[in-house]
Amino acid sequence: MIERSRLLPRPPRLLAIASGKGGVGKTWLAISLAQALAAQRVRVLLVDADVGLANVDVQLGLDPKRDLSALLRGEPIGACITPLPDLGFDVVAGRSGSGLLAGADETTGERIITALAAPLPYDLAILDLGAGIERLQRHLAASADTLLVLTTDEPTALTDAYACLKLATLDNPNGDRRIVVNFASSRSAGERTASILQKSCARFLGTTPPLAGIIRRDPRVPDAIRRQQAFLTRHPTSDAARDVEALAAALAPVPA
Ligand SMILES: Nc1ncnc2c1ncn2[C@@H]1O[C@H](COP(=O)(O)OP(=O)(O)OP(=O)(O)O)[C@@H](O)[C@H]1O
Ligand SMILES: [Mg+2]
């Protein structure tokens, strides 16, 4: 899916992470995946597209001086970017002390997509979407080259993940949509969860999104978030870290 380290700047590919339901781990996964892909030499720009209620800066304990509000003022995307050299990727924060980013709609989404459609020194932009399936999330999900829909085994998460997949199928019938199961008690439990969602998609949407990865429930995830440290830095050998790395490898296979 991801072509790495191209010599001439081109627009990055867009990978959006959505779920519909809140609190299933989108922001944590977006950050961890950015770090895992960066370790595989993918040049990553992480965009906090949970505009106004952004959490990337909070989870990483950042106090960014730049954020998406510069883009809304008409400045180039470069004016929004904070490099994170210790983590190996750059970030566009989505929070603004001025409140300028509250009430973002698809116009904001279109500005983000247009800014990312320019030649940039990144292979991939990861968009951490907010909860819900309103206009902004829907627009960004439909515009992404690849949409990862995150779910857990709870019926509410499965229902909302299905709603995301349904809208994305309507908006972009030939799009690349994949499922990621989080909070799995085991790999086999994660496979069973994915299969429930896949069966609904096959039956009602006529399409079966592939399973991109399974992330196990791991108590070290909330530990890292409480300490506002990147998970792969704090717990690099944990179960969930291995699962994120496997997902990253599946998205950007290391050439033989
Ligand atoms: N694999 C996991 N194991 C244990 N806890 C996890 C796991 N993934 C996420 N969490 C916990 O889930 C909570 C929610 O994570 P996060 O904020 O990333 O979710 P979100 O989907 O981005 O939420 P929102 O919809 O509010 O943006 C965090 O407290 C985190 O510690
Ligand atoms: Mg979030």
Q: Low-confidence parts lasting 5 or more residues at pLDDT below 50?
A: none
Give the percentage of residues in beta strands.
Answer: 15-25%
List the bound ligands.
adenosine-5'-triphosphate, magnesium ion
Number of helices: 10
CATH architecture: 3-Layer(aba) Sandwich
Task: Please render the helix and strand layout as text.
Layout: E1 13-18, H1 26-39, E2 44-49, H2 56-59, H3 69-72, E3 81-84, E4 89-92, H4 106-116, E5 124-129, H5 135-143, E6 146-151, H6 155-171, E7 176-184, H7 187-205, E8 211-216, H8 220-226, H9 231-234, H10 239-251
Parallel strand pairs: 1-5, 1-6, 2-4, 2-5, 6-7, 7-8
Antiparallel strand pairs: 3-4
Adenosine-5'-triphosphate binds next to helix 1, strand 7 and helix 8.
Task: Fill in the keyword field for this structure.
256 residues; globular; 8-stranded mixed sheet; alpha/beta; binds magnesium ion; Rossmann fold; binds adenosine-5'-triphosphate
Structure description:
The chain has 256 residues and is of the alpha/beta class. The protein has one domain: Rossmann fold (3-Layer(aba) Sandwich), CATH 3.40.50. It is 40% helix and 18% strand. It has ten helices and eight strands. Strands 3-4-2-5-1-6-7-8 form an eight-stranded mixed β-sheet, with helices on both faces. Helix 1 (26-39) packs across helix 10 (239-251) and helix 4 packs parallel to helix 5 (135-143). The two termini are 15 Å apart. The mean pLDDT is 92. The structure holds adenosine-5'-triphosphate and magnesium ion (MG).
